[in-house]
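testing teh design pipeline on a random one, pls ignore if ur not involved
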């Protein structure tokens, strides 16, 4: 608890400087980033952070604390946010949350992701379940990609898919519910496949059925 208080006491003293981050010089930004990481690391070196700056002056600046998907440190994230101070111009969030708008994806109006040589939209991705582990409550899935083939850089593709899935599910849901992802080329006949944007709905359904 002492380390939690130490972090938040420092943050309260520094919050105006951090809030003004985007108006600082590159040198000052680097120093601010270093000190946030350093102070957070004093509490737990495995945690990381993101700051979402508001589009409107009246909106709050958001500090997100993340475990980078490592479930061993989920409790450390929730404990830190649980004891966050109440600051007028700040919002404190545990874990990276879902950030995409499902309605846009359903209409095919979502913005494409660009990863090195890969450009893909979530609305173009489909999946099928491979297996469900009732003990761990985790799912293995196969993800079908329009431009995927054997010559593609599999590592880049997997990194891209995990980022897209994190945007869909959020950090905690992704790592609590998904165990393994296999990639494959989208077949000509896609009638039996499930839209990737329905993945959270599918997870909720199987978890509900498993409980009942």
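output:
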């Amino acid at each position: 608890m002492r380390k939690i208080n130490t972090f938040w006491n420092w943050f309260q003293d520094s919050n105006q400087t951090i809030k003004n981050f985007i108006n600082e010089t590159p040198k000052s930004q680097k120093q601010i980033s270093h000190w946030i990481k350093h102070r957070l690391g004093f509490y737990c070196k495995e945690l990381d952070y993101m700051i979402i700056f508001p589009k409107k002056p009246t909106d709050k600046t958001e500090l997100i604390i993340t475990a980078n998907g490592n479930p061993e440190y989920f409790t450390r994230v929730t404990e830190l946010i649980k004891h966050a101070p109440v600051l007028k111009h700040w919002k404190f969030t545990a874990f990276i949350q879902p950030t995409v708008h499902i309605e846009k994806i359903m209409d095919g109006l979502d913005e494409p992701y660009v990863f090195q040589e890969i450009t893909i939209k979530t609305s173009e991705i489909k999946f099928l379940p491979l297996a469900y582990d009732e003990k761990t409550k985790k799912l293995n899935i196969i993800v079908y990609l329009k431009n995927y083939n054997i010559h593609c850089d599999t590592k880049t593709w997997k990194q891209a898919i995990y980022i897209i899935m994190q945007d869909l599910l959020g950090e905690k849901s992704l790592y609590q519910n998904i165990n393994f992802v296999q990639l494959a080329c989208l077949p000509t006949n896609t009638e039996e496949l499930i839209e990737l944007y329905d993945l959270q709905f599918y997870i909720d359904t199987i978890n509900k059925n498993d409980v009942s």
